[in-house]
Amino acid sequence: MARHLNQRVLLGCALLCAAACACSELTRVSAAEEQTPSQNQATAPSLPVASDARLAGDAKLTRFILDLDKGIQFRAFVLDDPYRVVIDIPQVNFRLPSGSGTNGRGLVKAFRYGTVMPGGSRIVFDLTGPARVADATMLDGGNGQPPRLVLELEDVDRPTFLQALHAGRPQLKPAVSDQAAAVAPHAAPAKPATPPDPRPVVVIDPGHGGVDNGTRSGEEMEKNLVLAFGLALRDRLEKSGKYRVIMTRNDDTFIPLDDRVKVAHDQAAALFVSIHADYLPRGEGDAQGATIYTLSDKASDTEAERLAESENRADAIGGVDLREEPTEVADILIDLAQRETRTFSNRFARMLMGEMKGTVRMHKNPLKSAGFRVLKAPDVPSVLVELGYVSNKSDLEHLVSDRWRSKTVASMAQAIDAFLAKRLATAGTSR
Ligand code: ZN
Q1: pTM
Q2: Mean pLDDT for the stretch of residues 402-414
Q3: If both were cysteines, with which of 230, 319, 334, 375 could 382 make a disulfide (CB 3.0 to 4.6 Å apart)?
Q4: Residue range(s) defining the domain that contains residue 116
């Protein structure tokens, strides 16, 4: 499995990355998943507003209705493993009642919604079993009714489902808004006219985003906590002027895992740091503290394995088609590069722990490893930091605290300085 996934890293390079771009300011997303238009959209024509969403019907035929203030184009398709239906739409300002989508009905277990790229939004339905899109229509407003997007799902057997699945194999990226694709995909390798910036590149990867909330505790969602942290770390590193800092996302946008890896690879990054927060279900104890993870084929313990599995589910949550054909590549070369990279990743992880443990409460077992897909760039030292547990009261207090954030950011920046200073010194003598 690991080898297959390594190959996907290269395959991922062929995929267009359409991460979020120009937005410079964090818009703290508050209630539920409400989407506040961020700064870069201020000049764009006003986004369609979705004001309500509901489910009707039963386990044979389930209807989804989305109220809008104007008609929009959309595209609906099914995915399997797990069974899902995805509706891709142009970027929409979701002002749905808090808690929308958490309770299912009929064929729908739950649904999520959010931005998946600049100019593109997505609604992802988790299904109770195989279903087909029996009807999908945009109805005009009138008679006191707003314009509505109506989707009808019909219960089918698995062979029928698979037929529909293979007939309309969706693209990995939403293709509804062509205009959106033209809006500066920031992760594409820039071909600058100016001389290239010689500074080492640090990629900061706030986990989750958009349709994928990550873990949560009440109104506090992992995707927002880790974005705030990532932006603070970026600001801190940029202030030194020593690095070029690239964010895999700087707003509430869903980015597939391979695209995050691709950013690090394309930018020939010196370091990739993925930021997350963990959650331990009630009844499984009350873990607390930060943990630093590196990549390994074999998980260091069962908790690390559980966590990697849950973090690797991000693509399924975001409605990404996971049926990628394996490609034949020279995986021996990847293995070699990866072995060296892992040595550096492990070295950085140890340095990071050394810096963090003086200022931040660490997990009792703070260095672990498992098969995180986001750590699979063969040529970029990569670590994933779980800042703490949103399920733990005092960890959560830390995670939302500006003071805690800035001192943790400071200790991480220290470790990054030390690690890259050492690497640059080595690189300098060998050139
Ligand atoms: Zn996470």
Answers
A1: 0.77
A2: 97
A3: 375
A4: 46-180
